[in-house]
Amino acid sequence: MPNIAQSRFAERICLVTGAATGIGRAVAWRMAHEGACVAVLDINGDQLEITRKGIEARGAKSHAITADVSVADQVRAAVQQVEIHLGPIDVLVSNAGVPIVGAIADLSLDEWDRTFAINTRSTFVVVQAVLSGMRKRRRGVISITASSAALVGEVGSAPYAPSKAALVNFAKQVAVENAHLGIRCNSVCPGWVDTPFNDPSFANDDERRETVQRQVPMGREGTPDELAAAIAFACSDDASYMTGHTLVVDGGLTLGPT
Ligand SMILES: NC(=O)c1ccc[n+]([C@@H]2O[C@H](COP(=O)([O-])OP(=O)(O)OC[C@H]3O[C@@H](n4cnc5c(N)ncnc54)[C@H](O)[C@@H]3O)[C@@H](O)[C@H]2O)c1
């Protein structure tokens, strides 16, 4: 963890979804390290408890909620719970996601709907729930984790990539509707990142290394901490004039053929 001179999130209350592992956990710990009170939400309660303990170990207040982001009532109730336990939410990181991929010819309607329910509709629900308070207070920042897959055509990436492409545009809609109220919203697009998310994509470590070296100009996967740094930047006052932006953090993956 880098040594941060300022506490960019001091006194701020943050909610991070999909925070049981990977990028979401790294974001939660980074924001705690920088002074935030951090609420975390995930379907995986056991791993979420490790994230919560890590927040407290960094001297920050925490609140953990086990919930399924694809169930709207659970998400709305979670937002209410966070506001009761920690206070009004200043920063939302909508980050939960699943990697459902396959050839279009073989995909079922259920796979399409489930992907959009978890990756896309859930973001609308949590953003809407958090926005009502932010709009009343005329302040707030939102970061939506999309994907570099949202920006390109890629064999076998439906329905995952379209579900993330919708988020890139949704961040712009949130930004343009709320900019005059002092509320910012950006999307962050990771490329290959070393988290459990990609485990099903590769048969073994050698295949993983070979694929990443072939596709990524920087020749390696990103780390959860590198993504947390970008998301923390987007959510901090360092990015105070940035809204509706698509922040690509992919080691050059989307630059074109290497
Ligand atoms: N790892 C990558 O290479 C990569 C690349 C591009 C985008 N992303 C995006 O980054 C985000 C975080 O992924 P990660 O790489 O940290 O993977 P991860 O698997 O470590 O984290 C995803 C989290 O979402 C949670 N989740 C899944 N379904 C849920 C549900 N229905 N309700 C609540 N929580 C749920 C999981 O339990 C998990 O903790 C995802 O949105 C993913 O699409 C990841």
Automatic annotation (TrEMBL):
Q: Where is the Ketoreductase domain?
A: 12-195
Give one Pfam family.
adh_short_C2
Q: Which keywords has UniProt assigned to this entry?
A: NAD, Oxidoreductase
Query: What superkingdom heads the lineage?
Result: Bacteria
InterPro entries in the cross-refs: KR_dom, NAD(P)-bd_dom_sf, SDR_fam
Q: Which GO terms describe its molecular function?
A: oxidoreductase activity
Similarity field: Belongs to the short-chain dehydrogenases/reductases (SDR) family.
Q: What is this protein called?
A: Ketoreductase domain-containing protein
| Organism of provenance | Mycobacterium aquaticum
Q: What is the lineage of its organism?
A: Bacteria, Bacillati, Actinomycetota, Actinomycetes, Mycobacteriales
